[in-house]
Amino acid sequence: MATGRTHRPATRSRGIPEATVARLPLYLRALTALSERSVPTVSSEELAAAAGVNSAKLRKDFSYLGSYGTRGVGYDVEYLVYQISRELGLTQDWPVVIVGIGNLGAALANYGGFASRGFRVAALIDADPAMAGTPVAGMPVQHTDDLEKIISDNGVSIGVISTPAGAAQQVCERLVAAGVTSILNFAPTVLSVPEGVDVRKVDLSIELQILAFHEQRKAGEEAAADGAVAPAAAKQQRKGPDGDVPAVMPA
Q: What gap in Å lies between CA 190 and CA 204, rounded to an integer?
């Protein structure tokens, strides 16, 4: 099987927009679920709903792949699984190193979704000498002193950083210098990389903060709605000795 260092996905050269590339994994996840249920075909509307997008956007995205479906029949599920997997480079073997084997790094190492999508965890690396040789997810942790050799020996082009923020940039620079050209960053910091190196950032605290914003906004809207009802009720109930009292008294 080909390795990631010598075979790169063709999405950029084929002119597929980045927004479309970002949605391809959503389609693949939905299609894989259909395939596991032995569903042979799916309409654009059904697949769009499963992926959480609108059907017009889905049809536009698939047009970049050369897939237009069959009127009255829909899309062939197995063929789309293959086609999207090929475009994403998932028909190849992608060796990955995870640097920083704390709680998050260990959880990532134990995540079964990597292997099922063509990503082979080639090595687990940590700066703590006490961690060296410790088995995590069935693999011994290796020390960062050997990072460059590990990357070279395994033909690694994708690195995952799950270190504390203060160590992330230095780890990133060593990964890039060793030949890594794509980085998935879980450290709560922004990485500076040279041109030609792709970085995807995953910050769980930011996602929670965004959810907190939406929760606060919903609470504010509910409070405003309750406040709009209260004055109306008060207007009906307020009475003086001579009958109704206007809600706003003249000065």
A: 14
**What DSSP designation does 192 have?**
P
Residue 227 burial by CB count (10 A; 0-12/13-18/19+): exposed, middle or buried? exposed
For 141, list phi and psi in degrees, rounded to 5. -70, 140
Structure tokens at 36: 């596991």
Strands 75-76, 135-136: parallel, antiparallel or unpaired by DSSP?
unpaired
Q: How far apart are CA 113 and CA 220, in angstroms?
A: 39
For the segment 26-75, what is each residue's pLDDT rounded down to a tens digit?
Answer: 999 999 999 999 999 999 999 999 999 999 999 999 999 987 778 878 99
pTM: 0.74
* 76: helix, strand or coil: strand
10 Å Cβ neighbour count for 20?
A: 20
Residue with tokens 């410790």: 134
Six-digit token string for 141: 């942790």
Give the C-alpha distances (Å, rounded to integers) separating 121 from 105, 137, 249. 12, 10, 74
What distance in Å separates the CA atoms of residue 58 and residue 36, rounded to the nearest whole number? 21
Closest CA to 80 of 125, 124, 134, 41: 41
- Give pLDDT tens digits for 189-231: 999 999 999 999 998 889 999 999 999 999 988 888 877 655 5
Beta bridge partners of 198: 182
Q: Is the CB of residue 120 less than 8 Å from the CB of residue 114? A: yes
Angle CA 233–237–240, to nearest 5: 145
